Amino acid sequence: MSDPRLTPDPSIITTDQPAQITLPVVDLCRSPSDPRDRQLLFGDALRLLNSSAGWSYVQSEKDGYCGYIPADSHGPAAAPTHKVSASATHAYTGGDFKSPDQMRLSHGARVTVIGQDGKFAQTAAGFIPAQHLMPIDQFRNDPATIAALYLGTPYLWGGNSRDGIDCSGLVQAALLACAIPCPGDSDMQMALGQEATAPYQRNDLLFWKGHVALVTDSDTLIHANASAMACTYEPITNAIARIATQGDGPVTAHRRL
């Protein structure tokens, strides 16, 4: 049976056009009346499959997720040249950090640089500090380092940005930044890598029912969790005991990338 998260509904499709997100963060919903399933970031590429009554039915290119977004949250597709490599940044009205900021962009947002003004890159979103960007075709090589950029980020169910993130959103952001394809939800992420056993190694994935965490060393993990309502480090043994005590059961999978 096909997964509706990843399979466009053929009864809805009326077009198939490339598009991209034009707002900092946009909720992706199963239907216009549903809460968010996931989120999309500025510059994320889409397939626009339908647009009516103020909503657009789309499929995200980065992970294949399907859903509805507001029709005013996307625009024509462009070829991004850079992506935000800092945890977050601002786009200013000019190439000066004292100029008004007009947009906050999360790590992973994609932009097209059209010019340079001193230490600022000019984009359609505004002028962004060049040190906060990296070329679109360059990647990091350590997911745990990327995950650390999100430390302290508030927990948000279905969140995918530095403003709010959940467990699978954190893992996806960390892996995509390292050129490792990664689906959006923890049940699908359990297919990543190979089955592993202790001792734990950096960048291993640990799964519970409805939860995933990224190992940072043999004793520690990082995860966005509802216990702290934030992205935090936690000793692995403490996390295993706490999650079992709160009724969510034992570790269900240990995967090595």
Automatic annotation (TrEMBL):
It comes from the Bacteria. Residues 137-257 form the NlpC/P60 domain. Keywords: Hydrolase, Protease, Thiol protease. InterPro entries: NLP_P60_dom, Papain-like_cys_pep_sf, PG_Endopeptidase_C40, SH3_16. Transmembrane segments: none annotated. Belongs to the peptidase C40 family. This is NlpC/P60 domain-containing protein. It comes from Sulfitobacter pacificus. The lineage of its organism: Bacteria, Pseudomonadati, Pseudomonadota, Alphaproteobacteria, Rhodobacterales.
